Fold:
Amino acid sequence: MRAELRRLKERVQQGRADVIIGKNGVTEAVLEEIRRHLEDKGVVKVKALKSAVKVTGLDRRSLARHVAERLGAWLLDVRGRTFVLYLPGRGGGASSTAPRGRGNIRPRRGRGLGGERKPWSRR
Structure:
């Protein structure tokens, strides 16, 4: 379990933030957006702007804990004003990252079902 969480955290840390908390602070809309990402992917990277930290009156770690508690998520990591949340029992595990259906086979762009080229168009 710990190894899986560590892999998830590393994978998310390298990408851009999924949700940014702005100058209005932790609003219901922001919480709903984070919740949606958590339910879809199971893990989400959130960045709080300086103004968000100032408006809430909390330090960066307290802000991250506050958001995690409101959503019922685990706080995996805090780096600067960026933190990673994990929702246990949702997507985001190793099985959800595996491709579904046809595996790694992707259809070639610009080709029909039989492999013939589609006519080029400016539309």
